[in-house]
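Hi D.,

Good news: the full-assembly prediction came through. Inputs first.
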Amino acid sequence: MRVRTRGYWLYLVPSLLLFLVVIVVPFLMNVGASFTRWSGVGTPRWIGLDNYTRLLKDERFWQSFQHNVGLIVAMAIVPTAIGLVLAAALFDYIGKKFGSRTASALRAMYYLPQVLPVAVAGVVWGWMLHPSYGAINQIFGLDLDWLGDPDLALATVMAVMVWFQLGYPVVIFMAGLQRVDPAYYEAAEIDGASWWRRFWHITLPQIRPEVFVVLLTCTIAALKVFGPIFVLTRGGPGNATMVPSYFSYLNFFQKSNVGYGSAIATVLALIIIVVTFLFLRVQERER
Amino acid sequence: MMKTRAAAALAVAVLVLSACGSGGSDTPSAQSSSQPRTLKLWHYESADSAMGKAWTEAIKKFEASHPNVKVKFEAKGFEQIQKTASMVLNSDEAPDLMEYNKGNATAGLLSKQGLLTDLSEEAAKRGWDKLLPGGLQTTAKYDDRGVMGSGKWYGVPNYGEFVMVYYNKDLFDKHKVQVPTTFEQFTAAMDTFVKAGVTPIGTAGAEYPAQQIFYQLALTKAQKPWLDAFQSYKGKVDFHGPEFTYGADTFADWVKKGYIAKNSSGVKAEDMGVAFMNGKFPMMISGSWWYGRFASEIKKFEWDHFLFPGATMSPGSSGNLWVVPEKSENKDLAYDFIDITMSKDIQNLLGNSGGVPVAADPAAITDAKSKELIETFNKLTSQDGLAFYPDWPAPGYYDVLVAGIQNLINGSKAPSAVLDEIAKPYEDNLADIGN
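Then the structure:
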């Protein structure tokens, strides 16, 4: 048996090579750079763990991780929860009542923000949220500085991210629901189960694998988030919306602190690896 | 075993990194003049700006005087060049000539890294040093530590820039406000606007404008030695001294009094400029880079400018620099091109397009608005009043100041806490200079 499967490894060589060249080598180079003092040009100077000890004491770095927790809520937990209800409603209620075309059209609308380039979406949101002439203040008759007030900025970015992410779980969950045996729903309906009960006892358990995948990918996306922060707030006002990836970028490109930027990137990568590992462990156990 | 492997991998990675040395290259021997050649040129000025117009003309002139040379111009973005210059210049993709930001944290850093060509000899030979008066030479020269003001020539500026108060004449007339000449008159004018329910100064906290107001306020209490200490590290800067304390306190006070809108902390520079062009604010404190655009786009009202009252110094400097990358293979052509941009007719065109030329013929500046601008600039340089910009002293200081001033606008931190916040990265950088 062993002898017979050995041949399969040959087919993995191209992707392994790619993985090595595109992921492993740059990652190791990044780890290497994190032990040096380097401006990105010239010879790096070995400084051991100095960047990491500095990182542990860096208030902005820890602050940026706190903001990341908020973004995990906005990009993973909230969209997953709303996405579940929406997907079930589209599949089980709208689809049946108004036809599958209506459900598909609505699904496409929810997914649209995922297709838009983040820069375009960010600029448009920036206009809508502008304190003087923004549509949001005009429509609701408010006078709020959504992205400029440190007490509001993170919540505003979170709200934009919910809008941004929502389509992704909806599409995945609707695809997952396609494989649920309709007989379950029919039987439950005959027994007089309400829509909520069907959702709770059939839909949720049946698409648990999809929920895991969405939570995992969205959590990773939230940990890595860069584009929306760059376009909307650049980490401001003050440091109210600073996130690790933007903080790393600032050190790389603004301050020419490539060593320190690499240390931040390394810590972020390790955290993502640990989170992924934990998710997979939990998922294994579920099975 | 795993540990050994990991350590080995790390060692390899570091070795690979170390191999990315700072390559310098010698200029190749001049190719024979009959062979077709290319001058690769990058800059980030928009085509309709004064510099854009002048340099487009310079390319035409250059190609006319160098029949066997084709100029390959690539328009770049300011941010794009700022963020990636050192990486690009260290690669084989470097251009022969490019526009780059002046200051210790930018051109100074690249010169220190050995990425820029020493232009001292050319500057003396071609007379560029005579065309640029003292204050404008500051940003062209950098010492071994990458600190501006002395040492070798690494860049050549073509134009000047400075921060002033733009004002809407119609709004001034409507509210019966005179152009202020003293600081007291200036605050009295702002009080008049506030009483009438008008926010007097349009600014932008998310980008450079607000920090330049803070710096301008500090400059009203500053003398030359303080400026030399802050910008060129020739002495110790006390962030809780009278200059910055006054700047931070007064700025916070201006927000409280409604001179600056409380909701301007998330506003970007472009929004500020557009709001002024739409007549929303009577005043805007910003740089001469807006001047040409205002001249061509403001049609609904009359506008003018004055220097910040009560200060002999204002933020300002030479414009950005022409730099010749060390890896350029056509340095001789790059020098010729810089020479053309310093010629009278290109400088006059720059001046007549709303820019501040450094070597124009005053009689040739016929555009009235441009004339006024150049006169103000000359007044400022004659009193040695170019105070550079607050974000220059340290790499990444721009973001530190943006964050600090946003805290002042929001009132989320007391002025003294903001000063602590901006002092630390400055002090950290002092320890780094020359490393």
